[in-house]
């Protein structure tokens, strides 16, 4: 039987590529998405469709409403920044950072992995096309893996170590896109925008859209997503 892996799966470009990578490495994939009160909830609708299309064994959506805390343009009544240059994006931690989001998501993934007797967790964090998020850095992934092996039955028993895979962490957006194309990812079924229209069109101006569009341009490809501004 193939080894099991939990893949954090937002339905976006990066997580879809990571899911395809996990499958290509022979894992039986259990996709885990979150309804955390994000304003760009269209990503969940696409995640439900694409998890199955990509070949996940199972897909779960967990509700963890981070609007109760707010503090981010994604979970509070705060404007999403638009039209920023890449230098400006990386100058400080942006208001689209959701406090402790990846720590929370990885904790849920760790619990799910324990139930499944899975030793592998995949996450699509990236530290090259830098969005300014502290929980997308290699130091964070390494620290969480150490925590996972201190806090779980598998880690304490010493039989198997928990492994946190972040295959995209040192890749540019164009490298990620090229790898996804190679693995058959349909990027039309992915969503990256932080401020989509009510009909699900990407704004084309937020940081996430800008980095995505630049990635496709650098890869010499056309982004198949639907935009208001492109």
Give the terminus-to-terminus CA distance: 45 Å
Taken from the alpha-carbon principal axes, the silhouette is: globular
Mean pLDDT: 92
Helix content: 25-40%
Spatial arrangement of strands, main beta sheet: 3-2-1-4-5
CATH architecture, please? 3-Layer(aba) Sandwich
CATH topology, which one? Answer: Rossmann fold
Counting H and I runs of at least 4 residues, what is the number of helices?
8
C-alpha-based Rg, rounded: 17 Å
CATH class: Alpha Beta
Strand runs, count: 5
The fraction of residues in strands falls at: 5-15%
Number of domains: 1
User: How would you characterize the largest beta sheet?
Assistant: 5 strands, parallel
Element order, helices and strands?
Answer: EHEHEHHEHHEHH
SS-derived structural category = alpha/beta
* CATH fourth-tier homologous superfamily: HUPs
Low-confidence stretches: none
């Amino acid at each position: 039987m193939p080894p099991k892996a939990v893949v954090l799966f937002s339905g976006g470009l990066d997580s879809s590529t990571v899911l395809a990578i996990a499958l290509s490495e022979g894992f039986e994939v259990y996709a885990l998405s979150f309804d955390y009160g994000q304003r760009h909830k269209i990503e969940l609708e696409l995640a439900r469709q694409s998890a199955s299309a990509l070949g996940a064994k199972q897909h779960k959506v967990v509700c963890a409403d981070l609007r109760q805390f707010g503090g981010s343009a994604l979970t509070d009544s705060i404007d999403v920044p638009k039209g920023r240059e890449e230098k400006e994006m990386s100058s400080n931690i942006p208001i689209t950072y959701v406090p402790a989001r990846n720590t929370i998501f990885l904790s849920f993934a760790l619990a799910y992995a324990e139930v499944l007797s899975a030793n592998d967790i995949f996450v699509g964090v990236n530290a090259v096309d830098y969005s300014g998020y502290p929980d997308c850095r290699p130091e964070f992934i390494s620290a969480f893996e150490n925590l996972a092996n201190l806090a779980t039955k598998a880690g304490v028993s010493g039989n198997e170590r928990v492994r946190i895979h972040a295959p995209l962490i040192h890749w540019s957006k164009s490298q990620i896109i090229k790898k996804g194309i190679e693995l058959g990812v349909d990027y039309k079924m992915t969503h990256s925008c932080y401020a989509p229209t009510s009909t699900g069109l990407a704004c084309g101006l937020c940081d996430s859209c800008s980095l995505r569009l630049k990635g496709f341009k650098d890869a010499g490809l056309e982004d198949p997503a639907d935009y208001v501004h492109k």
